C-alpha cells in the first residue's frame, strides 16, 4: 500500500475526530515542557487535514496549546480544561531542577513548575499522550552528563518522560498510573514523531477507540514495522554492500545506522506529504523513535555492532559477521539472535519472544518500592 | 509605578516572560526572562564531535537546520585547526547556503503571516483588505499553503522537516540527483510566483495605500506590503527603538567570488565595520550577573566552561546569559543584516521607518519583508550553481585535538558554536543564539538587553491592553503571543488579547 493510500484511509477518521472536537464537549490540553517546539512544527506539516484546517480547528476549540490557541497567558491558563479529555505533553519534565520548565504562576507569585501541572492534570485526564521522545522517554535532555560536569547529576535537570525515564519506568507518573480511560500514558516516540502519528492517535481516542499499545506504550500500527525491513538500502545490506560515509551509495549500517533496532513506519509513510525520509537521502537512522534515544545509540556515527544494544553483546550475537560483509544468511541469523526472528514467521510484528522477554526485563527491572509513585521533586 | 507581568508568553520556542514597570503611562523598566533550561552544552561534552551536530541540531525544532550547520562548522573548524581536515566540498557549501535560504523564506513567511500579521489584521482591514484574517483570510491561508511547499523542498535534501538529519560535519549527507534539484526549484518557483515580482513593490505599495488589489502583481506581495502599511499607520516606527548597533556573521557566498551577499561585521556610530572571524570572536563575551548560572560560567565563550546552573541564585531572573560585543549590546536579525550590507530595497525603511539604519518596530518588519525578496532570488541562483553530481561529503576525521568556532547566520540573527576537542572527544562546548542577543537579560553593569532597552520609554495607553508592547516583542521574532497578567498596588488585573480579526473587536477582558 502506498504512503498516500495509508494516509487517505485515515482521512475520514481524522476529519470525524476534528468534527467531534469542534462540535462536542471534547477538551484537549497540550502542554510544553523542556521542548524545542519541533513536535508542534511537525504537527503543522500534517497534510490530512491540512495545516490550515488543523490550525483553525485547534485554535478555535482546543482548550490549551501554547502555539496554536487564541487565548494567552493567565486567560489561557483559565481557559485550559483542568479535567481534559486528552492531556498532551511535548517536551520532557525536569524533576531535579523543577524551575527549568515553568508555566504561569503559583498563587504566591512564583513560577509554577511543569511537574506540578502534570501532577495536577494527569489524574484528571481521560487520556494522557506523550508526544515526542522527550515527553515519552525523556529525550535528549535526559541524555547522560558524561563528564560529570558541575554539581548536577548524570541527568542534568532530572529530565523525565511522563511514565518512562529512558527505557525504564517510572517517569514523572508512577508505573501503575492509568488515566480515566484505564489506559496508561500513550507514548509517541520520535524526534519528532510523524504528524500522522499525532493526529491519528488523537483522532483514535476522540472517536472512542482504544489504541493497541506495545510494551513501551506506543500504538502498534505506527511502531511495529522495523525501519530495517522497509529501508531502500535493505538489498545492499543483504549483499554486504556498505557505505563508508553518510550520503554514499550502500547500506549505512557501518556508519551508525540504528535501523535494525528501530521500529516505526516512516520508511513507507514518508515525510512532508510523501516527499522523503532520513535514510532515503543517505542519513543513517539515529533511532529517534526508540526509548533510550539518545544514549542508547550513541555514538551515532559508529557501526552498531560496537554498541551494547538490548543488553546483548552483538559481537557474539552474530551481527559482527554481518558487519564484516557476510551476506544473506548472516543477516537473518543476526536478526534472530537479536530477537527479531519471529516476525519472519508472521509473529507479533517484528518483536520475538526473546526480545519481549528482554524488554520486559527493562520495564520491570526497577522494583515497585523504588518506582512507586515517586515524582522526584 | 505599576508592575505588568507577561507570563507565560506563548508561541515561542522555549518559555519566556516579561516584567514591566510602568510609570505615568510610560514603561520605565523591562526585564526579559527566559524560563527554560535543558543543559545542551553540558550534555554535548564527552561525546564525539560528529554527534554534536546531531544533538545541538535538536536544540530548536523551529531553527532546526541552523544549529546543525553552526555546530558542524565548529567541529570542522576544530579539525582544520588540528591539521586533520581540509574543509568541506565546494558544492556542500553551496547546498548549505541554499537550504538556509529556503529556511529563511519559510521562517519569514510563518512570522509575517501567522505570528506578527494577526497583530495588524484590524489595521490591514482598515486599508480595505480582508485577506489577513488569521483563520479565514485568503492571504493567511495562501501563506500557510506556501510554507508547506518550502518544508517539502527542505525535505527533498534533508529527508524530512523538521529535524532533517542530512546536515553533518564533513558536508551534507545526501545524494540528490538532477531531478531532485529540479523538484526543489519548482517548489521554490511556485512560492516565488505566489509572492510576485520584486520590481512590482512600488506599484503594490501604491495599490495598498489606495485600497486596491491586483493579483497580477503578486498576491503575497500585496499581503506583505499591506502589513507594513498598516504597521506604519499604527505608528510602529515610533516604537521599540534600539541603539542602532548591529552585528551579523554574514551569509550566502557568491559561488564565483566567494563574497558574502550579507556582509560580516558590525554597524555602530553610523557606519559599517567589516570584520574577520577572529575579530568577531575576540569581541564577544558573556555575562551571568542576572542569569541562573554561576559566575564561573561567564566570560569568553572560547574559554568559559559550559553553563553551570544555579537555580536559586539571588537577583537572577533569566535562564539566558547576556552576550556582549566589546561590552555592548548588539541587535541581530534581518534589520541588522540589511543595515550592515547597505540594503534598503525601494527605500522602504528610509521613507516609512525614519531611516534605513533606524532600529524600531516597523523597520524590523520591513527588513524581514525586504529580506524575503532578496533571499528568494538568491536561493534560485544558488540552486542554479549547485551541481548534485559533485562531491557533497568529505572524510571527516575520527580523532583529533583542536579548538574551533562555527559562525553562522540563521533567520533570527547571529549564531555561534564553540568547541574544544581532545583526542576525538568534546571537552568544552558553548552556544550563543540569536534570541540571546536580542532578548537576554541585563549585564553586571546594569545595561539592559536589546529588547529590555527598546521597550523602555514606550507609552502604554491602556495598561490592560498593551498591544504595542506585544508588537515590539514580536518584531524581534521570538514568536511571543500577547497575553498579559497585570499586577498593580491596587490589585491584580488580567488581560486577554486575541489575534485581531478584520471587522472584529479586539477581545479585551479584565477582572
How are the secondary structure elements laid out?
The complex is a heterodimer of chains A (377) and B (511).
Chain A: H1 3-23, E1 28-32, H2 38-43, H3 51-61, H4 73-79, E2 86-90, E3 93-94, E4 102-105, E5 111-113, H5 114-121, E6 127-131, H6 132-137, E7 159-160, E8 186-188, H7 195-206, H8 220-223, H9 234-239, H10 266-269, E9 308-309, E10 312-313, H11 314-317, H12 319-323, H13 329-337, H14 353-364, H15 368-371
Parallel strand pairs in A: 1-2, 2-6, 6-8
Antiparallel strand pairs in A: 3-7, 4-5, 9-10
Chain B: E1 2-9, E2 16-23, E3 26-34, H1 40-44, H2 49-56, H3 64-81, H4 90-116, H5 121-126, H6 138-158, E4 167-168, E5 171-172, H7 178-195, H8 201-209, H9 219-233, E6 246-248, E7 251-253, E8 260-262, E9 265-268, E10 271-274, H10 277-283, E11 284-287, E12 322-325, H11 334-341, H12 348-352, H13 361-385, E13 402-408, E14 415-422, E15 425-432, H14 434-439, H15 450-455, H16 467-475, E16 483-488, E17 491-496
Antiparallel strand pairs in B: 1-2, 1-16, 2-3, 4-5, 6-9, 7-8, 9-10, 11-12, 13-14, 14-15, 16-17
Amino acid at each position: 500500500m502506498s504512503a498516500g493510500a495509508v494516509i487517505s484511509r485515515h482521512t475520514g477518521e481524522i476529519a470525524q475526530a476534528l468534527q467531534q472536537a469542534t462540535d462536542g464537549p471534547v477538551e484537549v490540553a497540550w502542554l510544553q515542557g523542556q521542548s524545542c517546539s519541533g513536535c508542534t512544527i511537525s504537527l503543522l506539516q500534517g497534510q490530512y487535514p491540512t495545516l490550515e484546517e488543523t490550525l483553525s480547528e485547534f485554535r478555535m476549540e482546543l482548550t490549551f496549546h501554547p502555539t496554536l490557541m487564541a487565548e494567552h497567558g493567565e486567560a489561557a491558563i483559565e481557559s485550559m480544561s483542568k479535567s481534559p479529555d486528552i492531556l498532551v505533553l511535548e517536551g520532557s519534565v525536569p524533576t531535579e531542577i523543577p524551575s527549568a520548565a515553568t508555566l504561569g504562576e503559583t498563587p504566591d507569585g512564583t513560577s509554577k513548575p511543569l511537574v506540578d501541572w502534570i501532577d495536577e492534570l494527569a489524574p484528571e485526564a481521560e487520556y494522557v499522550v506523550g508526544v515526542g521522545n522527550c515527553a515519552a522517554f525523556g529525550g535528549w535532555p535526559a541524555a547522560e552528563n558524561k563528564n560529570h560536569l558541575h554539581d548536577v547529576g548524570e541527568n542534568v535537570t532530572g529530565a523525565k518522560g511522563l511514565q518512562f525515564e529512558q527505557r525504564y519506568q517510572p517517569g514523572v507518573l508512577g508505573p501503575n498510573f492509568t488515566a480515566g480511560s484505564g489506559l496508561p500514558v500513550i507514548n509517541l516516540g520520535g524526534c519528532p514523531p510523524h504528524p500522522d502519528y499525532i493526529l491519528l492517535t488523537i483522532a483514535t481516542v476522540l472517536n472512542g477507540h482504544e489504541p493497541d499499545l506495545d510494551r513501551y506504550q506506543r500504538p502498534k500500527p505506527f511502531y511495529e514495522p522495523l525501519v530495517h525491513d522497509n529501508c531502500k538500502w535493505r538489498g545492499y545490506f543483504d549483499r554486504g554492500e556498505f557505505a563508508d560515509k553518510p550520503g554514499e551509495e550502500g547500506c549505512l549500517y557501518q556508519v551508525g545506522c540504528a535501523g535494525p533496532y528501530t521500529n516505526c513506519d516512516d520508511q513507507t509513510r514518508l515525510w512532508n506529504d510523501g516527499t522523503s525520509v532520513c535514510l532515503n537521502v543517505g542519513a543513517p537512522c539515529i533511532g529517534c523513535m526508540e526509548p533510550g534515544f539518545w544514549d542508547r545509540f550513541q555514538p551515532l556515527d559508529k557501526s552498531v555492532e560496537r554498541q551494547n544494544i538490548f543488553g546483548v553483546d552483538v559481537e557474539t550475537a552474530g551481527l559482527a559477521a554481518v558487519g564484516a560483509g557476510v551476506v544473506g544468511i548472516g543477516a537473518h541469523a543476526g536478526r534472530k539472535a537479536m530477537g527479531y526472528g519471529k516476525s519472519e514467521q508472521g509473529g507479533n510484528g517484528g518483536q520475538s519472544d526473546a526480545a519481549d522477554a528482554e524488554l520486559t526485563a527493562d520495564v520491570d527491572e526497577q522494583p515497585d518500592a523504588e518506582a512507586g509513585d515517586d515524582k522526584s521533586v | 509605578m505599576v508592575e505588568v507581568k507577561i507570563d507565560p508568553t506563548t508561541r515561542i520556542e522555549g518559555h519566556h516572560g516579561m516584567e514591566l514597570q510602568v510609570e505615568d503611562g510610560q514603561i520605565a523598566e523591562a526585564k526579559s526572562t527566559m524560563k527554560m533550561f535543558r543543559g545542551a552544552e553540558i550534555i554535548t561534552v564527552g561525546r564525539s564531535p560528529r554527534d554534536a551536530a546531531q544533538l545541538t541540531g535538536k536544540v530548536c525544532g523551529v531553527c532546526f537546520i541552523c544549529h546543525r550547520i553552526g555546530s558542524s562548522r565548529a567541529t570542522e573548524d576544530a579539525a582544520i585547526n588540528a591539521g586533520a581536515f581540509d574543509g568541506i566540498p565546494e558544492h556542500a557549501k553551496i547546498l548549505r547556503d541554499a537550504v538556509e535560504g529556503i529556511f529563511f523564506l519559510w521562517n519569514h513567511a510563518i512570522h509575517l503571516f501567522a505570528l506578527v500579521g494577526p497583530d495588524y489584521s484590524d489595521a490591514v482591514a482598515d486599508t480595505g483588505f480582508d485577506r489577513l484574517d488569521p483563520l479565514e483570510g485568503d492571504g493567511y491561508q495562501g501563506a500557510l499553503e506556501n510554507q508547506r511547499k518550502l518544508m517539502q523542498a527542505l525535505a527533498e535534501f534533508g529527508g524530512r522537516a523538521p529535524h532533517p538529519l542530512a546536515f553533518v560535519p564533513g558536508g551534507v549527507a545526501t545524494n540528490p540527483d538532477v531531478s531532485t534539484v529540479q523538484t526543489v526549484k519548482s517548489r521554490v518557483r511556485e512560492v516565488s510566483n505566489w509572492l510576485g515580482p520584486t520590481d512590482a513593490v512600488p506599484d503594490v505599495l501604491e495599490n495598498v495605500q489606495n485600497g486596491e488589489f491586483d493579483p497580477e502583481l503578486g498576491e503575497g506581495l500585496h499581503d506583505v506590503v499591506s502589513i507594513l502599511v498598516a504597521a506604519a499607520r499604527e505608528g510602529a516606527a515610533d516604537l521599540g527603538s534600539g541603539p542602532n548597533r548591529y552585528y551579523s556573521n554574514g551569509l550566502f557566498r557568491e559561488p564565483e567570488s566567494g563574497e558574502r551577499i550579507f556582509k560580516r561585521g558590525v554597524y555602530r556610530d553610523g557606519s559599517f565595520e567589516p570584520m574577520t572571524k577572529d575579530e568577531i570572536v575576540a569581541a564577544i563575551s558573556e555575562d551571568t550577573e542576572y542569569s541562573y548560572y554561576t559566575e564561573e560560567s561567564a566570560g569568553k565563550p572560547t574559554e568559559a566552561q559550559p553553563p553551570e546552573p544555579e537555580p536559586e541564585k539571588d537577583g537572577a531572573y533569566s535562564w539566558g546569559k547576556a552576550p556582549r560585543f566589546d561590552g555592548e549590546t548588539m541587535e541581530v536579525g534581518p534589520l541588522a543584516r540589511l543595515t550592515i550590507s547597505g540594503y534598503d530595497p525601494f527605500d522602504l525603511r528610509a521613507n516609512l521607518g525614519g531611516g534605513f539604519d533606524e532600529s524600531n518596530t516597523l523597520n524590523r518588519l520591513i527588513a524581514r519583508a525586504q529580506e524575503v525578496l532578496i533571499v528568494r532570488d538568491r536561493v534560485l541562483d544558488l540552486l542554479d550553481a549547485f551541481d548534485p553530481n559533485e562531491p557533497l561529503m568529505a572524510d571527516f576525521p575520527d580523532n583529533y585535538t583542536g579548538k574551533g568556532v562555527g559562525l553562522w547566520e540563521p533567520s533570527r540573527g547571529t549564531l555561534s558554536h564553540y568547541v574544544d576537542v581532545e583526542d576525538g572527544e568534546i571537552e568544552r562546548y558553548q552556544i550563543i543564539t540569536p534570541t540571546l542577543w536580542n532578548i537576554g537579560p541585563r549585564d553586571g553593569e546594569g545595561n539592559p538587553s536589546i529588547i529590555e532597552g527598546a521597550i523602555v520609554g514606550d507609552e502604554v495607553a491602556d495598561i490592560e491592553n498593551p498591544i504595542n508592547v506585544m508588537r515590539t516583542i514580536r518584531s524581534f521574532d521570538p514568536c511571543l503571543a500577547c497575553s498579559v497578567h497585570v499586577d498593580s498596588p491596587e490589585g491584580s488585573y488580567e488581560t486577554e488579547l486575541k489575534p485581531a480579526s478584520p471587522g472584529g473587536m479586539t477581545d479585551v477582558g479584565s477582572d
